[in-house]
Design goal:
single chain; 78 residues; alpha+beta; GMP Synthetase, Chain A, domain 3; three-stranded mixed sheet; 47% helix
């Protein structure tokens, strides 16, 4: 899979989960993908949320892996 297709699939996954984050006053942006690790930035209410790491792993990472199974991990960058 080339980089353009990879980014497209990850963005599609983020579009699936983004409405849930927006409902709670937050959002998420794709920063970069390196060595099958997706780097994202949480925004708005997600920044200070006490369960943001749980959302990142169980929501965001799981959704991205559904679209792109070779992704190893999703990490937050600030």
């Amino acid at each position: 899979m080339d980089q353009v297709e990879l980014y497209s699939k990850v963005e599609k996954a983020l579009e699936e989960i983004r409405p849930y984050l927006i409902t709670d006053g937050g959002n998420i942006s794709l920063v970069n993908i390196e060595n099958d690790v997706v780097k994202v930035q949480l925004e708005g209410a997600c920044i200070g949320c006490s369960v943001n790491q749980l959302t990142l792993k169980n929501g965001v990472e799981a959704t991205i892996k559904k679209y792109v199974p070779q992704i190893k991990e999703v990490i937050e960058v600030k």
